[in-house]
Amino acid sequence: MAKDRIARLTMKKIIWYNVDLLDYRSLELVFQRHKFAAVIHFAALKAVGESVEQPVKYYDHNLRSSLNVLKAMQVHGCRRFVFSSSATVYGIPKSVPLVETVTVGDLGDVGTRAGAKSIATNPYGQTKVFNERILEDLAEDSSWDIISLRYFNPVGAHPSGCLGEDPNGIPNNLMPFLLKVAKGEYANVKVFGNDYPTKDGTGVRDYIHVVDLAQGHTLAVDSMLARKSGEGGGYRVYNLGSGVGYSVMEMIKAMETASGQSISVELAPRRAGDIAECYADASKALIELGFRTNKTLQQMCDDSWRFVQGQCTYP
C-alpha cells in the first residue's frame, strides 16, 4: 500500500483517515479529533476527457468537496489553506511564458482579483477556475491565509522507486503512455503534429518533477506558518513549473535513455485546440516562497522507469 511505503520512507507515524470529502459529517469528525495548523487540498477528479463527458459529476465532486473542507475549517478555526490548482485555468495562452497576472480569456466582467481573467477549455479546468474564485471571495476575510498553486505538468516518481504512477487502461498523458510503450504494452506512441514553430516541430510543454512539486507545497505552508498568529495573508497565486519547455521528441528521447528501449513514433496531424508551446514563469514563487526546481527531464524519466520496474529501495 502507498500509505505504508510513505510511512517507511519518511520514518514517521502517519495518521490516515479514509473519508469521502462529499460526506461532510465524516469529514467534520476528523476535524473534531485534531487541531490542524493548515490544510493542503489535493482531492479532486482530474481526467480532462472524462470531465467533458461527465461535467455534472466534475462540478459536483470538485466544488462540493472543496466547500466541505472549507466549512469544516471555518467551524474548527483553521484558516490556512493551500489549494491544488492547475495551469488549465489559463486556457489557450496568447503568449509564453505564462505569468500569474496574464489575461488568458474573456469572462466579460468576471475577472480574478489576483490579477488574471481565467477561462479554461474543459469542465475540469473550469472547476479549478471556480474554486479559485471561491477562495478569493473567502480571503476577503482577513483571518484567512489562502494560496493556490497552479501546477503545470507533474511527472516522475519518488527517487526510491517506491512511489509513483502506473495507471490502468490507456493513459491520458504523455509520460505514462511512453512508459507503457517502453514496457511493450503498446506498439508505438502517436505524436500529434511535427510542424509547430518549435525546436523540432513538436509541441513544447513545461514538465515538473513531483518531488519538486511537493517541495513547493511545503514552502507554501512554511510561508503561512511564518506569519504571526492571527495575521491573515489574503489570497496568493503561484505557478509551479520548471519554467523550461521540453518538446514531445525530447521527452521520447529521454524515456528511451531511461528504459534502454527504442520507442516507435507514429506521426499524426495536429489536434484541434492544441498549441505549439506552454510553459511557466515561476519567478514569483522563487521570489516570495524560495521555490526552484532541481530535477532534470532525464531524472523525471529515470525515476518513473525505476518505479514501473518495481525497483523500490528504502533508505
UniProtKB/TrEMBL annotation:
Gene3D superfamilies, sorted: NAD(P)-binding Rossmann-like Domain, UDP-galactose 4-epimerase, domain 1
A GO CC term assigned to this protein in UniProt: cytosol
Biological processes, Gene Ontology terms: galactose metabolic process
InterPro entries named in the record: NAD(P)-bd_dom, NAD(P)-bd_dom_sf, UDP_G4E
Catalytic activity: UDP-alpha-D-glucose = UDP-alpha-D-galactose
NCBIfam families attached to this UniProt entry: galE
Family that this chain belongs to: Belongs to the NAD(P)-dependent epimerase/dehydratase family.
A GO term, aspect molecular function: UDP-glucose 4-epimerase activity
Pathway assigned to this chain's UniProt record: Carbohydrate metabolism; galactose metabolism
Matching Pfam families: GDP_Man_Dehyd (PF16363)
Keyword terms: Carbohydrate metabolism, Isomerase, NAD
Span of domain NAD(P)-binding: 12-303
UniProt EC number: 5.1.3.-
Protein known as: UDP-glucose 4-epimerase
Cofactor or coenzyme needed: NAD(+)
